[in-house]
Amino acid sequence: MASFRDRSDAGHRLVGPTAAVLPAGWPVTVVGLPRGGVLVGAALVEGLRALGRTARLDLVVVTKVLSPDFPELALGAVTEHAAVRSAAACRLAGVDDDRYAELTADARRRLGERAAALPEPVTPPDGAVLLVDDGLATGSTVEVAVAELRTEVPDWLGLAVPVADATAWQRVRSLVDGGVVLLQRTPMRAVSVDYADFTQLHDDVVRAALARWA
């Protein structure tokens, strides 16, 4: 049986545990990973505001470095100012340094296209920054997003996800100041397994959420 009805349900369930770890009285910028993380983040912002917190929604755009032979295998990920590489995934896919450089160049091209299609992220103001996604499997996407957000030198950086691979969670949790995960899986199945409705989202949904909750 699925653990969450949909991404909005997951976001609402994160509200209480997240409010407990956020610095008291600080304004909060909830940064979602498009596309699913933005929808989770919108529900979280709604819930935090209902508790009297000052909260707004933003996004950070990340693109995975993909293996041409194993399209489901992420070799790494890139943002505008950061990059991570999974040595284990590269070994599994038989990708050497030269080939990885080519694949990274393609990922950066796709990153530019994705960024152009979405609202430009706003530099977080003083206060807490909370990164949100709809799930965490390998952790590479979240890891590079954390590195990107660290370039803005936030006063406090946290992470909240509804479900995560237990091993990956321990790794990325060490990179942030506070973290919330509702379910940890060992081994982690596909993120979609924990959702009754994991509908593929379009950019217009992301734009609408940002327009309402930014």
TrEMBL record:
Keyword Amino-acid biosynthesis: no
Alphabetized GO MF terms: glycosyltransferase activity
Enzyme's top EC category: transferase
Pfam family of the protein (one): Pribosyltran
Listed EC numbers: 2.4.2.-
Domain of life: Bacteria
UniProt KW keywords: Glycosyltransferase, Transferase
Domain annotation Phosphoribosyltransferase: ranges: 27-176
Protein name: Phosphoribosyltransferase protein
Taxonomic source organism: Modestobacter italicus (strain DSM 44449 / CECT 9708 / BC 501)
Lineage, opening ranks: Bacteria, Bacillati, Actinomycetota, Actinomycetes, Geodermatophilales
